[in-house]
Amino acid sequence: MSQSKTCSAGGLAAAAILLLVSIGIAQPQNLDKVTVAGWSKPISEITNLLAEPDKGFFKAKGIELGYVSGTGGGSAVRNMLTGKADVAFTDPASFYQALDKGEKLVAIYNIYPQNVFNVVSPKSRGITKPSDLKGKKIGVYSLSSGTRQNLQVLLHQVGLTEADVTVQVTGLLNFAPVIQGQVDATAATDTGLFVGKLKGLQEVNVIEVRDHLNVPSDMFVVTEETFKNKKDVLRRFLSAYRDSAAWMIKNPEEAAKIAVKRAINGRDETINLEIIKIRNISAQSPTTQTKGLGHFDIDLLQKGADTFKQLGLIKKPIDIPRVVNSELIP
Q1: Which CATH fold would you assign to the domain 32-115+216-323?
Q2: CA-to-CA distance for 221 and 33, rounded, in angstroms?
Q3: pLDDT tens for residues 16-66?
């Protein structure tokens, strides 16, 4: 090949490389890893997180998303504090109790503003109000779960404690013990109740915790150190999560299809759709409708903290405006 032809070919190759670089193909995108400590295994109600390989909401914001399974909100906080994750997907009760133990935490996003917890029992048991729980055997997902902590709230409303009942760990979304009569009632969630009915739970009485204390069900929580040092990463993480939540609210049918391959309990697309619709409702509130997804009702969270203090579930008062920060919410 002549020198002129060599130069011409070299110029074309260089131009091609420049073109590839300009459209972002030649070099892989550098992503910041953010791992979420969940309260559960990868179940269908968090399909907006599980859909990342399909939708790429987080990658679009420069985030590589990780997920660590848990057995309740308390375990999510522990996994974050021990360095297994950057962000805890946890409930206010676990947040309050961690703060009460001296942990330095900040709540940065209101995932589910509506309280979704309940206590469910067969009508034959005659349990219609919290005081009826005295002397009864009650199932919870785990001892570190929101089901147990919200059960404590109900009991304290009528002057009872866990000493007045028998608490039994039955596992996540497991209504078999109450169906089989091994427990008199079970503390659960709205989606748990839906699944329980599909598995044979007959006519039931449902005590809704929100009728007594409508604090949020779940929030994203980080350590003060993470909040101070990783604001840019967290801001992009929350922006991506907000996009994923908005997508699932707008496209529940698509989310139900993705859950079939991504969620451990997602085999049935029809069931996925109903669970996703239920969870979409809890992701919205009058506050989010005016301020946007993820925003907090500070007064309500303060009422929750004050109630936990009054009921003896925590010992120290909590100043919510000091531990809840909305500045990173898109």
Answers
A1: D-Maltodextrin-Binding Protein; domain 2 (3.40.190)
A2: 17
A3: 434 333 334 444 479 999 999 999 999 999 999 999 999 999 999 999 999
Domain ranges of the chain: 32-115+216-323, 117-211
pLDDT tens digits for range 221-254: 999 999 999 999 999 999 999 999 999 999 999 9
pTM (2 decimals)? 0.83
Exposed, middle or buried, 86 (CB in 10 Å: 0-12/13-18/19+)? buried
Q: Tokens 């979420």 — which residue?
A: 36
Give the homologous superfamily in CATH for domain 117-211.
Periplasmic binding protein-like II (3.40.190.10)
Banded model confidence at residue 317, pLDDT cuts 50, 70, 90: very high
